Amino acid sequence: MAQVIDMSQFTFNVEQIRSVSELLFDEVVNSPEINRLLTFYPGIVFKKEIGFIGKGGLVGVAGQGCDPEPQDWQINTRKVTWEPADWEILLHMCYKDLETSAAVYSLETGIRRPDFTESDYMNIVLRVLREAVKEFMVRLFWFSDTDAANVSGSGEIKNGVDVKYFNIIDGLFKQMMEQVTANASQRVTITENAGASYAAQALDPANVQDYLSQLVYAADLVVRSKQDAKIFCTQSVYDAYKQSLTGTALETMYRNMVDGQNALRFDGYELVAVPMWDEIIRSYFDNGTKWVNPHRAVFTTRDFLAAGVDAEDSFEDMRIWYDQNDRKVKVEMMGLADAKLLDPAKFSIAI
Q1: Is the pTM of this model over 0.90?
Q2: For a designed S-S bond to 322, which of 115, 200, 214, 337 qualifies (C-beta 3.0 to 4.6 A apart)?
């Protein structure tokens, strides 16, 4: 069993370190605020339908005089059916794997030696695991595909990466691509994505404003009229747009946020960079020559992007225990989840 933290990368002596808590590790790229991207629906534990009431049909005709004929009028309705799937995280760790590294100083003595649940080593594991769970949520709700396959199997997942981490449900990007296949007016093509190499996929800042303009004006009028409508995008799109503004009055493109941070805007709509999209694409959607659509932008509101979960805290509820039978420390998380476009017409995507 391999160590959860590769301690072979570090060399210490007893004088240099007495606790694994003194280790310095690379900063984890902060995931975006999940709640800014999605609307969560708790209590989704079975195949459940949500009904929506839409607009009514036409009313009002010329006066008919005597014996008027009633008008046929109906209210349009539609439904979304949740299909939640099981997910789980299960880790087993053995104290013997820590004995040949600096982590040995985190172990207790005697009968308590195998149990390192309260150790500095475990604190590091849990701190990094929390970040991994955030990435899992982004990957699950946005990038999942029940038909996921490796490049060698005519799929998009990098060879050597186990597709079991990508095929739990059909995520929002897959649903969006299916929707724009049926309705091409909701899609804006980013030509650089089709580049034959990593270098050829570099996003030209000179093109970005045109892409964003098409994205906004391709959207449903309902989306454009909403005050909370935003452009969610890869960091690559955000950076290229910012570069395209060189020499202009940047302050006119910013809005001062409540927390004092500045937000870049296009045509009045805030751009929300999601750097974890970039990280996931470049790490896993790679055929060895190019990435799969490394530049993406979605114009909508979080009201139409739904994440169904069995419980609000399922991605936070973590069980940690020491199993005396096999002398291992174990970590477990599990739940049910699904992703849905609540109204497939209420978004536009540049990809």
Answers
A1: no
A2: 115
